[in-house]
Specification:
This protein is α+β, with helices and mostly antiparallel strands and 135 residues long. Strand 2 and strand 3 form a beta hairpin. The chain has a domain of 86 residues. It has one helix and eight strands, in the order αββββββββ. The protein has an eight-stranded antiparallel β-barrel with strand order 1-2-3-4-5-6-7-8. The protein starts with a helix and ends with a strand. Keywords: Signal.
Length: 135
Amino acid sequence: MLKSILAVAAVSLALTAAAVEAEASPVATPQQGYSVVPVAPSERSGRSRQIRCSVGQMRETNCTFTPLFGDGSFQLDGPDIAYRLIISDGEGYLFEVFSRDERVAVGGTYRRDNRDRACWVAVERTPAPSRICAR
């Protein structure tokens, strides 16, 4: 009897832990074959969602958009895309994302495009993508 009670308790605990984990890190399911780099719950300011995006000269594609910090910053994940645009005083700074805790600045300053508010445009020429759009 004790063994069966312990077995039920263990299963219940495992299911509860899985539910808490899923709630702590909500992620939109990618529509295409790409992986979403996890975002720490403390950095996330809203739910991830599927959007259309383009980076540099790439064609528009399906991406996962995750709002960050509540200040307009965001992370984009998609096919060959894993970037964060961190916003400070109306300017954006681009980082390539390798893992939840590993990001590298790719250089340049970005400003919102006056004609297309879904896009951020590089202020100066650098090897970094010249334009980032999240629709």
